[in-house]
Amino acid sequence: MRPWLALLLALAPAAAQTVDEIVAHNLAARGGLDRIRAVTSKRIAARQSSDPDGESTLLIEQRRGESGPQIRISVTLDGVTLVRAFDGVRAWSQLIPAGRSPLPPVHLAGDEVSNLAEDAEFDGPLVDWRARGITVRYDGRAPLGGREAYKLMVRLKDGNVFYYYLDPATWLETRTVGGRDTGGREVLIESQFRDYRRSGGQMVAFRVDSQTPETGRSQSLTVDRIDWNPGIPESRFRFPSGSSAPLGSAPAPRLAPHAAD
């Protein structure tokens, strides 16, 4: 066979890939749609190491609520726990110092609500993307770590854009690049997904390394444990009863996009 013909035949499968085929391969590699959709709640225990803050512990709780996906993120650093939660409609935060009574919770607004709502999404943006108003476009192959990764442009319903890079051997996410609105401006975040393991019948990245090029800040998130479909009451995500506080703000823990989805 002539060399040029062999090259064309080798490239043909990649050229013929459509965005629907690539997404289907990714979802199958993650564990399949049935397993993904069967998850109604999950609890993730993790450690986060960031520069210059040091190491903190994270507890991420998620639930499919009647009003939409819910999330509660508890970050503990130097004995102080910051809780940030989204109940499917509203978001709030609360500081809990060690050995002292919790400070009054505050309602969140603007970018903080939309970012928490984005973090709350269970399945990642590629599941049922058309029905959810998400745009996905195949942007061809891109060099990444000595391989030609599949590159997808993903525009979320809120307008945020991320680029997903899928490993051609595993079809799993290996890198994402995208912006999030923070304080009225877009901040670029680059994340690398590593140490994939099978958990609950799904392939999950147990380590996510992220950086913000603009500021030079970096962080590494290491998953210690995932509980699938634990019984998490809806009250965990609601604004604490009997509390009343004005709109406020607290430093947000930086989660990589759709980590441990």
Structural summary, described in words:
This protein has four helices and 13 strands. The protein has 261 residues and is of the alpha+beta class. It has a single domain, classed as Lipoprotein localisation LolA/LolB/LppX (outer membrane lipoprotein receptor (LolB), chain A), CATH 2.50.20.10. Strands 6-5-4-3-2-1-13-12-11-10-9-8-7 form a 13-stranded antiparallel beta sheet, with helices on one face. A hairpin with a 6-residue loop joins strand 9 and strand 10. The longest helix is centred in the first third of the chain and has 14 residues. The N terminus and C terminus are likely disordered.
Quick tags:
disordered C terminus; 13 strands; alpha+beta; 261 residues; 47% strand
What is the tally of helical segments?
4
SS elements, strand count: 13
Instruction: Count structural domains.
Output: 1
Q: How far do the termini sit from each other? A: 45 Å
What amount of the residues lies in strands? over 45%
Please state the average pLDDT score: 87
CATH superfamily annotation: Lipoprotein localisation LolA/LolB/LppX
Q: Indicate the CATH architecture.
A: Clam
**Side-by-side strand order of the widest sheet:** 6-5-4-3-2-1-13-12-11-10-9-8-7
**What structural class is derived from the secondary structure elements?**
alpha+beta
